[in-house]
Amino acid sequence: MIPFPEYPRPALRRDSFLNLNGLWSYAITADEALPHARDGEILVPYSPETAASGVRRTLQPNQWLHYQRMFTPPDGDGGRVLLHFGAVAAQWVGNVQWQLDGLPADVELPEGHAIAALCRI
Asked: How far apart are CA 14 and CA 32, in angstroms?
């Protein structure tokens, strides 16, 4: 089951759309380095503290939360594929490098191949 599968911004609806809500791998670590192992799965868009997330853990001030999911974006409109984050401060590590300091934000992605989404909070 994908929570909130509807298009998030109906006034800006596109023909090509993929909702990334659902199960992601996660790890909680003591530093920002990418973890070698995962702690389990988290149901996005819920925070790890909630029962709905399946995690029920509170992130401490000295901890980092890492999310990971593989996906293949649909063909973009006019050769463009955008990844939109609406409620998270994140850093992308993988095929495309970027960091978000303010949200919401859109990031242009390469079209036509699988993407490794690794987000660190």
From this structure: 35
Percent of the chain with pLDDT over 90: 24
For residue 57, CA distances in Å to 15, 24, 51, 98 come to 37, 15, 9, 27
Mean per-residue pLDDT for 70-85?
Answer: 69
| 0.70 surpassed by pTM | yes
Task: Give the separation between CA 46 and CA 42, rounded to whole angstroms.
Answer: 8
